[in-house]
Design a protein that fits this description.
By secondary structure, this protein is of the alpha+beta class. The protein is 38% helix and 13% strand. The chain has 16 helices and twelve strands. The chain has helices at 9-12, 49-55, 59-62, 65-71, 139-155, 200-208, 212-226, 235-259, 310-329, 332-357, 367-377, 385-391, 421-438, 445-453, 463-474, 479-487; strands spanning 31-33, 43-47, 83-85, 88-91, 94-98, 104-112, 115-122, 137-138, 161-174, 183-194, 261-262, 284-285. β9 (161-174) and β10 (183-194) form a beta hairpin. It starts with 8 loop residues before the first helix and ends in a 35-residue tail after the last helix. Belongs to the SELO family. Mg(2+) binds at residues 270, 279. It holds the Pfam family SelO.
Length: 522
Amino acid sequence: MNLNIKDTFNTELPADPVRENTRRQVMQACYSYVKPKSTANPSLIHASNELAEDLGLTQDDLRSEEFISIFSGNSVVPGTNPYAMCYGGHQFGNWAGQLGDGRAINLFEVNHNNKQWALQLKGAGETPYSRTADGLAVLRSSIREYLCSEAMYHLGVPTTRALSLALTGDQVLRDVLYNGNPEYEKGAVVCRVAPSFIRFGNFEILAARQDKKTLRTLTDYTIRHFFPNIKEGSKEAYLQFFREVTNNTLDMIIHWQRVGFVHGVMNTDNMSILGLTIDYGPYGWLEGYEDGWTPNTTDRQYKRYRYGNQINIGLWNLYQLANALFPLIEDAKALEGILTEYRNNYSTKYLSMMKSKIGLFNYDENDAELLGRLEDNLQLTETDMTIFFRNLNRITKDSSTNEDFLNPVMDAFYVKEEVKGDILKKWKLWFTEYVDRLQKENISDRQRAEKMNEVNPKYVLRNYMAQLAIDAADKGDYSLLDEFFQLLKNPYQEQKQAEKWFVKRPEWARHKVGCSMLSCSS
């Protein structure tokens, strides 16, 4: 392999002086050097040809022994110094202190076509930040991360990427449901790729320890490499940096809401400073449209990270980042002003996004109310979000509201028999107003349908689909994994051979482990 390795994080930032791989509090450092754990019998399951090309890798590289050795953690590229990042975070609203890369090891950075990429192995063994865990990952969670990060990329959602998925040949003990019944599962490693894996928590831990010097060093580094339009080193620069992080975070969450994605564990250590979706644990896509749904078993009681609350949690997390950056800025009013902008921008951007989903592009003062009632109606009876919005483009300006008015979207209802009486009356009222509103649009039905199809995906990685791929892979069959990987490269396109995946969640998947809710360790 001929990679253009150009490390910055572990050459420009302070390192942990202790070289032993022991659990400890790491002070006045941004990372600790650590090597991946050797694996028993690594084998490559799948790799992203497209991403490989972006990194300067060839098809021959992907098939080489060198590739599988490096990206399973069995060997280290000469001249490189793998490391685990030090960061803290608020977990479920509470300060958790030092967290860090407990099962992620950063290998090196690559510069190709004037783009910088950091490559990281997830599940490559213990680090000083592993606490009581083993630092390993299993095939189940690795498939979910591998498929989802690439699916999100092709949906147009800001995200980390996945280069490769490999079996380690080792067995890993996991308690899937936290119910005291651990079982051995196949070990696996995913190579994750992003411009950077810096999180809100990288700044929080330094502020919490009152290490202003390292905080400034890290912030200047981040601005220099990832916000080059900002001139580093001044109060104004730090405020502009915070504003851009705020805007990027908002844009990311608006995209989540657009496609019905629920992150499941929006702790501050899982928030990318670049506004990328990061750490695919107990995520899920809405099956039935429900503001209160969370895919995380740990969040079952309070539903802090539910679909309808993600935008608020984004703001809460940004408050924590503002507190962390305050020692460099010392202007609470200016920071508050940027956070207020987030609230105001959210209202505007969310309305614009939702209007695009139902094909409204002109201004009308009643659009917010129309959309509000739509969201209420979608929760009157279980209604599949993806199917409803995708099929809504079948409504035209001259659609009638006779007895068959719901036919274009009827496939979205899980229990069609429930759409009667008061529910039917509310839908009829909404569709009547919607068709009237369409009259005010100055584009044709065909043009509107095309625009709607650009924001309403036909195919998303439903949890039951991921579980089917996992079940097959556990038996050594990776054909379904590849089928979904290829399918989700074109989520907005009609794919006749894949119509069987444009369906509601099957009944068998409603309460099956892995198909509805998952634990944080998944």
